[in-house]
Specification:
Order of helices and strands: EEHHHH
Distance between the termini: 25 Å
Number of strands: 2
Strand content: 5-15%
Helix content: 40-55%
Strand order of the largest sheet: 1-2
Number of helices: 4
Structural class: mainly alpha
């Protein structure tokens, strides 16, 4: 489980946020209270949330469209480098997710430690 934020930015959770804040409130679990600060989302949930954000916060423009427009402002060789690096990243991530699925079975939960391990491997390579 992981929360999404821009790299380098602090995570600021707002319990008053109608969409997300309710999940941050204290909940009763296993006979006690636990402050729930993480949300479990499926990829379908994540995509639906992104579509909602695109409509509400990005003037109807998808994050992908905004990325393509930003990319087109770069010099050609820099565009080639970004695309190549992204392809390498995507391939490595797919391989890592496949290895987690093979080890833990279909529907396995990807943890923050899994992502940390992946990022460490990526930096080493």
């Amino acid at each position: 489980m992981m929360l999404w934020r821009h790299e380098g930015s602090p995570w600021i959770a707002d319990v008053k946020d109608e969409e997300f804040g309710a999940s941050l409130l204290t909940t009763e679990e296993e006979g006690g209270t636990k402050n729930k600060t993480e949300v479990t989302m499926t990829m379908s949930d994540l995509l639906a949330d992104q579509e909602r954000m695109d409509a509400a916060e990005h003037g109807g423009n998808s994050l992908a469209d905004m990325g393509v427009r930003a990319m087109s402002t770069l010099p050609y060789m820099q565009q080639v480098k970004v695309v190549s690096d992204y392809k390498d990243f995507a391939t490595a991530l797919k391989e890592k997710l496949a290895s987690i699925q093979n080890a833990r079975g279909s529907g396995a939960l990807v943890t923050a430690d899994d992502i940390k391990d992946f990022m460490s491997e990526l930096k080493r390579n």
